[in-house]
Amino acid sequence: MVKAAILGFGTVGSGVYNVLNTNSELIRERTEKGIEIKYVLDLREFPGHPVDDILTHDFNDIVNDPEVKVVAEVMGGIKPAYEFTKQCLQAKKSVCTSNKELVAKHGPELLRIARENGVNYFFEASCGGGIPIIRSLNEALIADEIDEISGILNGTTNYILTRMSKEGSLFDDVLKDAQDMGYAERNPEADVEGFDAQRKIAILSSIAFGKTVDNEKIHTEGITKITPADLEFAKAFGCTIKLLAYGKKVDGRYYALVSPFMVASDNPLFSVDGVFNAIFVHGNMLGDAMFYGSGAGSLPTASAVAADMAQAVKNEGKTVYNNWQEGSIELSPSDSFECRFFVRLDKGAAGTAKSVFGEEIQFKEIPIAGDECAFITEVMSEKEFEKRAEKLSGIKSRIRCK
Ligand code: HSE
């Protein structure tokens, strides 16, 4: 049996412990060696729990133990996960992680250190929870040029928007419920402001396009301003609203964006509800593919970490190819990204809207927004949209359309 360690016994760490124990026999058969957890690192005590027998509070026990070949880093955050990961890789231990913040910030460096030491840095669980998207990009789609990767990458916001749409509820009320039920974090900023999806699309775009897409350069809008009226108008146009993350290559220019989008009912993303994630990929040979499944939660995420650990065992002594190479991709300004725009405005401004956006725009009205109407523009860049919108007072909201 190959000896392993788990750094962190929180939601994902305890899930990894469960997956490796529950499926230990089949993992042994499939890896031809098996994985035995020798240490779990956590600051807390777990009296009465079997993990207590293998618990350590000292990272040095793990990094200095030559028997440990594979480490699951499921602590989250940058400190001390970054230092611990580097030290494990330098000690020739493969590291498998769900830590999207660390991968987005230091992925290329950690991949390089892994290569230099003949081990692996795997992070399937960092994007889309249990959905096998990263291995698909690196292996199954290795012969394709990917020009788009986009989708629903955050379960919390998708859950909130789904309930707002179905119940007509307010954002704050649904968020509170989601927190009470344990879906949303007590500090939900990273989810609802779009930063979690931003890190995930940075990672996926870096693999799809081959060089680093810096997450901090990605234009990011969250869902906090979406109202029940927006969602009702969306229905009137045969759409719903989803927080989408986009990585796209158009005529040699790269775009990345996180923002709420109107999604039409004939789009497969329309029916992705609740905490589920879905990732759409377009390849120059493949055409379209979509990956759908459990994007968050203890066991789905742990399933991906444990699968990475199994891959690390199967590939001992060899660094597996990753399409994410050194160097960075320059993103085009998000205001040159072209799409149609949904606009909600005062009814009194409808006449001016026609003169600004064209006589052909069609207005819709709904009972819950008596003084307001809405329309959808032609395809245009955001820069062009803003230029025209300046001539129009009474705009209540604008949402991009997929
Ligand atoms: N907070 C994340 C989500 C967890 O809601 O999708 C999984 O990365």
Summarize the structure.
By secondary structure, the protein is of the alpha/beta class. Helix content is 36%, strand content 25%. The structure holds L-homoserine.
Can you offer a commentary on this structure?
There is one protein chain. Strands 7, 8, 9, 10, 11, 12, 13, 14, 15 and 16 form a 10-stranded mixed beta sheet that branches. A 6-stranded parallel beta sheet has the order 3-2-1-4-5-6, sandwiched between helices. It has 402 residues and is α/β, with parallel strands linked by helices. Helix 5 packs parallel to helix 10 (195-209) and helix 7 (155-167) packs across helix 8. The model has no long low-confidence stretch (mean pLDDT 95). It has helices spanning 11-22, 24-31, 59-63, 81-90, 100-116, 134-140, 155-167, 171-180, 189-192, 195-209, 228-236, 298-314, 350-357, 382-389, and strands at 2-7, 35-41, 55-56, 68-73, 94-97, 121-122, 146-152, 219-220, 239-250, 253-264, 276-283, 287-294, 338-346, 372-376, 380-381, 395-401. It contains 14 helices and 16 strands. Helix 4 links the parallel strand 4 and strand 5 (94-97). It has 3 domains: 2-129 and 298-314, NAD(P)-binding Rossmann-like Domain (Rossmann fold, 3-Layer(aba) Sandwich), CATH 3.40.50; 142-294, Dihydrodipicolinate Reductase, domain 2; 334-401, Alpha-Beta Plaits (2-Layer Sandwich).
